[in-house]
Amino acid sequence: MSTLNVLEGNPFTLGATVTPQGINFAIFSRDATRVMLCFFERADSPEPYATAEFNPETNRTGDIWHALIPDVKPGSLYLYRIDGPRDIHRGLRFNFSKYLLDPYAKALSEGSVYRHLSSLGTIESDSIYIPDQQPDKIPLFPKCVVIDDKAFDWEGDKPINRPMSQTIIYEAHLKGFTASGTSGVSAPGTYKGFIEKIPYLKELGITAVELLPIYEFDETENCNTNPKSGERLTNYWGYSTIGFFAPKESYASDRTPGSAVTEFKQLVKELHKAGIEVILDVVYNHTAEGNENGSTYEFKGIQNDVYYHLVEGDMQYYKNYSGCGNTFNCNHPVVRNFIIDSLRYWVTEMHVDGFRFDLGSILCRSQTGQLLTFPPLTNQISEDPILKNAKIIAEPWDAGGGYQVGRFPGGRWAEWNDRYRDDIRRFIRGDEFTSTAAATRLAGSSDLYLYSGRKPYHSINFVTAHDGFTMNDVVSYNGKHNDENGEENRDGSDNNCSYNHGFEGACSNQKIERLRVQQIKNFFCCLLLAQGTPMFVAGDEFRRTQNGNNNAYCQDNEMTWLDWTVAEKNKDLVRFVSELIKLRKTHSIFCRDTFFGESEEEKKNGVDLVWFDFDGRVPDWSKLNRFLACELFGSRYTKQDGTKDVNFYIGMNTDLHDTAVILPALENGKVWARVLDTSFAGVDDIVEEGKEEVLDAQRRYIIPANSIVVLASKDN
């Protein structure tokens, strides 16, 4: 083993930075007494071929250890070894026998922390420590990769910066989108495979993809097995990060270490060419290192008491606001800088357009765990000049009781609105006395966002997300069926607000199947015609199913992979959703920047939204149930082509019986024409703009049971 020449380097950029003189390495560690870099020839090398030791006199500035290594090039593989005091009761877990990942590594070679530990015969307890022990051989352990970010040609790519009010989000799993052989792509389950499906996304009409975690994670950490098949389960979703700057290597078609960086950048560039933004689902609330019984391979061995929330009085134990064993100490200045550096990197070097923050309330917790009114981190993300145009979306709760829907702190944050999900599911299901709540959600949830100074688009409206039933399963199952997760069906939510319409799961009864399709159309109408930012899950537009599993985090198989034969089978539903998206995009009344009644124009001319009961009168909200109707005064607006827009009547009947309604009278000789009726089958359920059918009866309309009707005003 050789020893490499070590120059002073600089502390200003953490991680591995390519310079004309060599590679500059820098890492934070407050209490370290010894820092060593280890370099490997290949990803599967069991031990390093060379080392470089930092001199604490010349290679340390404050708490930053730094060194310039002239003989190292881009593509090199490396890990750290760090020594220091070990006192687990004070939160110090230094262990020089452990190889450590660089938190700032921009790529990791394909490997597995957990397969490495299993090869040693055990998943270790971190409390075990043998002084002066030599590191284990690590052929399976991932290595950090030196990346030259300037090597990629972006061809002038710039951020799209689409307003949030004009955004339609499509939540997708990068691998699962094309992993099935039915996808027809050349490299299934990869960044390259996803690129091949961009024409489909463009035709569908969505404006942004929100990718489940693509930050590097270890899918082998799940030790459960499928009780039906006996197969080992995985961490498929990826909510357990080990590399906060590194795109997942196994999603690359080229498995050369570092190729994921190039392929991910190519994916972003191609999506931007299609006018589609990229939002990343990111996990800064915890790491994969687990609790006091977990292993050391990153933050624990660098400065455990800074990076994690530890229990006061006995700091060997970890606070667990994440439900995943540990909690990232997000508002510690060092950790806060780390998160900001990570976000800036993905925006500046990877060109992503925004972030959805998993268990976002943890970002609001103080260094002692209390929820803060003005959290430094969320405020900094909101106000950071480099992140100014990035979309920031919070999952505004955590596993420690931090539920903050409608009051997530930090200025311009949008939020996943689970109140919308539950209220709309109950309304479409036909629950009594739910129409008032549904009306509030459809109008933009002003009860949640108006008084905090935010706008309708700050509400991310969703009926489904990765976490829960697919839309097809919402209308096909009364209860969860998670038996294949290896947890005896105890996992996943029991509060699904779903309804199987008379039969549990897939069935051959055509009447039931037609009704299920009708209800899916109803959900999409509520999503795409409501105020707020709509989001739906990949495959919902063609009845993707998970067979009733509402917590498929561990199912990396046909259960979660999109079956594209189903898309072909249900192409009429895909067409319906696509046309509905066109309708939303064409008419600004469906995607306002302000709440109804908030603008100066409305204060002069009257509110642009009027609610009706089925008799055409002002509703009695204390009695109204299973029916909603409104008129939207789009005629007060001008379309992009300079022409006057139109009014819309939306009637929603969630009862089991048809309802005859009185339509509002139109002025200036206008007449009502049918845009859509979800009870219709085939191409008649929604028509293209300009092909609307004028109603024979202008004052009455029969809205069938469990259906939604949209009418538009038209010249007679």
Report on the architecture of this protein.
This protein is an alpha/beta fold and 716 residues long. Among the domains are: 149 residues, Immunoglobulin-like (Sandwich); 117 residues, Golgi alpha-mannosidase II (Immunoglobulin-like). The chain is 20% helix and 19% strand. It contains 15 helices and 29 strands. The chain has an eight-stranded parallel β-barrel with strand order 12-13-16-17-18-19-20-21. The longest helix has 19 residues. The radius of gyration is 27 Å and the shape is elongated.
Given as residue ranges, the uncertain stretches (5+ residues, pLDDT < 50) are none
Distinct helical segment count: 15
First and last CA, distance: 87 Å
Indicate the CATH architecture of the domain at 2-150: Sandwich
Indicate the topology.
Blueprint: E1 2-3, E2 15-19, E3 22-28, E4 34-40, E5 50-53, E6 60-61, E7 64-69, E8 77-83, E9 86-87, E10 92-93, H1 113-119, E11 144-145, E12 169-172, H2 191-196, H3 198-204, E13 208-211, E14 215-217, E15 241-247, H4 259-273, E16 277-282, H5 299-307, H6 333-348, E17 354-357, H7 376-383, E18 391-394, E19 414-417, H8 418-429, H9 435-442, H10 446-449, E20 459-462, H11 471-474, H12 510-528, E21 533-537, H13 564-569, H14 571-586, H15 600-605, E22 609-612, E23 627-632, E24 648-653, E25 659-662, E26 670-677, E27 693-694, E28 700-703, E29 707-715
Parallel strand pairs: 1-5, 12-13, 12-21, 13-16, 16-17, 17-18, 18-19, 19-20, 20-21
Antiparallel strand pairs: 2-3, 3-7, 4-5, 4-8, 6-7, 8-11, 9-10, 14-15, 22-23, 23-24, 24-29, 25-28, 26-27, 26-29
